[in-house]
Predict the 3D structure of the following.
Amino acid sequence: MKHALNEYNSMLSSVESPAYLLSESALRKNCEVLSTLSKETGAKIVLAQKALAQPELYPILGEYLAGACASGPWEARLAKEFFPDQAHILTCAPAYSDQDIEELLPISNHLDFNSLSQWLRFKDRCLTHQAENPEQDLKFGLRINPEASTTDNPLYDPCAPGSRLGITADELSKASEQDLEGLEGLHFHTLCEQNASDLETTLQLVEAKFGYLLQRPTFKYLNLGGGHWITKPFYNLNKLKQLIQHLQETYQVEVWLEPGEAVAIHSGVLMASVLDISDNNEVSNVLLDISATAHMPDVLEMPYRPDVFDIKGNSTQTASQDRPSYRLGGNTCLASDVIGDYSFNTPLSIGDKIIFDDMAHYTMVKTSFFNGVKHPNIILIKEDGSIETLRQFDYADYLFFKKN
Ligand SMILES: Cc1ncc(COP(=O)(O)O)c(C=O)c1O
């Protein structure tokens, strides 16, 4: 994205702050990698909308991806309405209500259940709908929990002991043959920003614990979830291809992947302006027109430290005494609304614009109107260099949000 910023520098200075700036060419570059992988292996790849749910981008993403995965009726509906007609919608939520099932049955292609009790509660209704709508290509599956912890961060580990996500092999062994009737797929999601070697470790446990089901001819798909860092330059694509091939040959199943971050990584930034600079003892506090908690919550939740560029494209580094250093903070009352301490090549002044890198995924989808801080507009930098404002937020949006 840094290169795109340099290229579009003159335009950036004319864009009103604050704004999320999305790069069409960076998105397409990620999608090319995913679509080549799909063509080379036969695996189907969909967008995880939980990471990026900007419907104006779906026609672009639909050129490369097989569809989208949904965490419930609203995401499923968004994909149905804005992805191209032939897109597949794979739905998996931790739990469904009656109403959810009502809405999801007509628009999903895979409907995966997170527990046996949920499946058994809705099984008859699901199978009746399937029998009455053979043209829909709707299959039902279970989200399994292979108890394969491969991440150090328990916040992002669906396999942590006692996890509510997915059915363990032990629990599944209690199901009768009749309980399993009508199921055609398995789904797991256990990774977060990980390489193919972690998938390999996970698959060893998936095969050992659930391979007996995959071997049955009634089981037609295996969904490997998200968390695959496929579009990072160091990602081991060859190993992923081998693993996919192994699954297809051993079990004759369709393999699906549902990355979110890999679709959007390095494709967007958040541009903010300096509103004030005030000192407290040794600390120079920069007050920005954005907020970590409202507009980039993963910075506090995950937590993670974004790279920062000034508008001239200079990167910053961790605070160092020999350069102008600042604590970058948000414009809310939350004492911990702080992005971090950074040093710049030249001193910052009021009105300067700075750029937080990698702000397309898990940012716009998680934003809030906390403290009534102005919400950043959402702007697409198109391939030809022109800019399109996708969303412009004003008081009316804040009021609508508050009233509802
Ligand atoms: C079930 C499921 N699928 C896919 C994803 C997408 O993961 P990522 O954005 O890390 O690729 C997630 C993320 O939490 C998930 O929970």
